[in-house]
Every structure is written in C-alpha cells, then in structure tokens.
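ok trying again, last paste got cut off:
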Amino acid sequence: KSTVSVTLALALHKAGLRVGILDADIYGPSIPRLLGVSGRPALGENRKMIPHIAHGIKAMSMGFLVDDDTPMVWRGPMLVSALRQMLFDCAWAPLDVLVIDMPPGTGDVQLSLSQTIALDGAVIVSTPQDLALLDARKGLEMFRKVEVPILGLVENMSTFVCPHCGGRSDVFGHGGVRREAEKLGLPFLGEIPLALVVREKSDAGTPVVVSDPAGAPALAFRDLAGGVRAAITGGGLRRPAPRIVIES
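nice, full thing came through this time. structure:
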C-alpha cells in the first residue's frame, strides 16, 4: 500500500503536477525508506516544518521525527495531534496534489482526516484474493459513511511474470479487484504487477517511476496516475468536510 502511494505520487509529479506525500501511518511509517530520505525537518517561517524533498516531491512522516527502532506507544488523541501538526504545521504550499498514505484499518486516522479536511477522494488498494478484499470493502464502506468520494480501486501484486521464462503466475489470484469494482459500480484504476524490481527499487529509495521509467511496472503506475488525475480534475469532487455523528 505504501509503495503504491509513493509511486503514485511520483507518477503524478512526472505528469507535471506539484505533489506532496503525507505519511499518515504514525505507528509504522515507511515513506522515509521508500523515498531514501531521513533526518529531522528544518523549521521555517512561523516555525513551520519544512518537508523533505525527494525525487521532486515534498514528504513528511513521523519517521523523520523519531528513530527507526522507536515504537510509537500512543493513544488516539496523541496520534491525531501529531497528524494535525504534520498536516497544518508544515510548509506544504504550493501543491496541486497531496497524497496521504493511510494506515490499515478504519480507525482514528481515517476518521480524523475525513472530519478535518475536504478530501477529494480515496483510492482503495487491495491484492486480488478474497481475504484482502474483505478488508478493502470495510475501508470502502467507511469512506462512504464519512462522505469521501471513492476515486476507484487498484489491484496490487496482480500477476507475476517470470523474468527468465516469461511465464505468468497469479500468486494471489487475478482479477478479484476488477470484479469487485464492477460489482460496486466503481472505477477500476488498473493492475500493478508483482515484480521483483518494484520491491528492490522501493527498498533502495528509488521507486520504479524514477529508476526504471520505461519498465512495465512504471507504466502501470503512470496509467494509475492518469486515472486518479482524471477523477480528481474532471469529477467535481471538492466538498466541505463532513460532520461525524455517532448513531446510538
């Protein structure tokens, strides 16, 4: 999921947009590793944090503020406070798109962001197998309840093509996310192949859109970025942040 978020952000940047990425996974931040950057952010005007810039995009993560092996043993209010600081006390502007990498689940981060800012939409990322789709459906329904538009679904780790013999293997199945999107009447944004180069380049801090732009995985991410951009710019999705009401 984080690999998709980062590489999508980079693909949007390659398409000519000014892009930032916010790592909202406070407990397990991975954006610093994926972008190959580290160190505490500097403070600028009005003591706002200045995001790191990597491969042309701005980035902010709790991983820049704590050591890699430091566990974040925080309750919900502390988590939400840290998230708001990274969102509002950071010199993001000017940006065309801010990609927010959400943690798994349907907890404090998702609810707080949906209530605090007017999200243009959510992209649901899932592998094809039924077990992963169960969690994806929960995330999708959560965003619907808080009135965040669903931009579409993405099938991650879709098909493995052997680099030696060219044979195809559907390790996690294939087509499950497309069928789910069709069933729900939502856009299917594409398939990201299960490829060794994606893992290697992401671990090295040089995702495939940067390091192997002509390869099949990079082209898949570029297609994904095109679909997301079209949904945002052409769908009239901007709306005020909703109120969250707990029903008894």
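cool. The chain has nine helices and nine strands. The longest strand covers residues 150-155.
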